[in-house]
Design a protein that fits this description.
Helix content of chain A: 55-70%
Order of helices and strands of chain A: HEHHEEHHH
Number of strands of chain A: 3
CATH superfamily of the largest domain in chain A: Winged helix-like DNA-binding domain superfamily/Winged helix DNA-binding domain
Oligomer: homodimer
Structural class of chain A: mainly alpha
Strand order of the largest sheet of chain A: 1-3-2
Shape of chain A: elongated
Number of helices of chain A: 6
Distance between the termini of chain A: 23 Å
CATH topology of the largest domain in chain A: Arc Repressor Mutant, subunit A
Largest interface: A-B, 40 and 40 residues
DNA sequence: TCAAATGTACGACAACTTTCGTAATTGCAA
DNA sequence: TTGCAATTACGAAAGTTGTCGTACATTTGA
């Protein structure tokens, strides 16, 4: 497993990636519709962004038919991991625990969520 | 407690803030020296960045003597919380638990850290 | 067929970020 | 006091981001 160049995406690009991760391969139209629910930007803006992302290889696309279908070209878990890692380093002095507690403290998670985490920790312990 | 405009800082600015949080009020020189350990940029670049941050009110400064002393003007915990919140929304589909588990899974935290978190969760439970 | 609808491509723009060179200022030492 | 070294101020440039208008291409259904 070789180390590769860190994924670098802007906030807007991350939003688009997130949609692609959630929905799977999608057209510009589909992405834009989803994006429009929470954001306010023109269709061509989304299109352009996705074209830029193509150049950056954050997404790939199938253009065999008229309508291009875009697919996330970076792994979700990996991207998440890298983002967190960078955040831990630059804002939490290298302590994942600090980040975790801050996340839980601030976000006021549901009981179900906390339970999930507790179970996860149990699993880790046994290993 | 009133809601205020979200803190908006770039990556470089975050690095500087982090140094100010860790070291307390510092001169440009001190910040730059720390920064130079991990980054490669000229002195005036750091200076300029900090001047911009002053304008943005991310830092304040005491210029009573020749050498200006800069202080972080935003609260660390608050900034951390906001960053995480945004990340949870845009990359983890609103689930703090997902973020937490990703952070722990990837980072391979120490036993001590995991124990810390476990205790923290116990504390939350009792409430 | 051919015009409307649906997509894509592309250029331009303003705002922002990061960088640095150079000028101006200030304090101190000799 | 005066000149040097340390600081700060500022302008400019290059790159990036997000935005959109408009032009071009393709499909399709009346």
């Amino acid at each position: 497993m070789q180390k590769q160049t860190p994924i670098k995406a802007t906030e807007s690009e991350l939003e688009i990636l997130n949609i692609l991760w959630a929905q799977g391969p999608s057209t510009v139209k589909e992405v834009h519709e989803k994006l429009s629910l929470t954001k306010d930007a023109g269709y061509t803006t989304t299109l352009k962004l996705m074209q830029i992302m193509l150049k950056k290889q954050l997404v790939s696309r199938d253009g065999s038919s008229k309508i291009h279908v875009y697919t996330a070209a970076v792994d979700q878990a990996q991207a998440q991991g890298q983002m967190l890692q960078r955040m831990i380093e630059t804002m939490f002095n290298g302590s994942a625990a600090q980040l975790v507690m801050q996340a839980l403290g601030n976000h006021r998670s549901s009981k179900a969520e906390l339970e999930l985490i507790r179970e996860y920790l149990e699993g880790k312990k046994k290993k």
